[in-house]
């Protein structure tokens, strides 16, 4: 193959990874949820958390893309099971956000006193990274991207991998920018606008969680139905 053909494969892999992963992460919708869950944290703490969450998301997507199918096979798990379990986590987190009380000055002051660096470290992965920023839908998308890397020609597989990794990097950087500048964006909305936007984002995340659970349950039910049909004896013609 010529050099420009490899460059074309590289570019297609980059765009495919970016177009597949970015809509699932949906960084603009994650920003108000991140702001709400870090209520009371200082600007420096939020900046450090934004960096940590973006880094965690990049690592998770890379692992899911490169070794997702191998890990699922090792633990004897199907992608449908991952969707159901992860979707339940998304629903639980979104439900708490939808029903959370509105923030007031007194509550914000109490949160500022209690939001310690230890609390920030504890929340960096769960729930800020998983399932808020990188849920089962994003992981399933990364595994899908990883499946597209397999080619009989190992050199082409490496070129596709080299193109997909920058796609993950751009996705993580986009998430970081949205989390980093969430305050400036939400400030323009005002307190009431921020509350409404946060609850709408939480509701959308709740619906996504239900959709993810349904997709997994639907796949499991179909597999059970197919297995049951295979065990039904076929009557012989007289």
TrEMBL record:
GO terms for cellular component: plasma membrane. Keywords: Cell membrane, Membrane, Transmembrane, Transmembrane helix. Pfam families: MarC. The chain crosses the membrane at residues 53-74, 80-98, 124-149, 161-183, 195-214. It comes from the Bacteria. Its main location: membrane. InterPro entries: Multi_antbiot-R_MarC. It is a multi-pass membrane protein. It is found in: Cell membrane. Belongs to the UPF0056 (MarC) family. PANTHER family: UPF0056 MEMBRANE PROTEIN YHCE. NCBIfam families: NAAT family transporter. This is UPF0056 membrane protein. It comes from Bordetella flabilis.
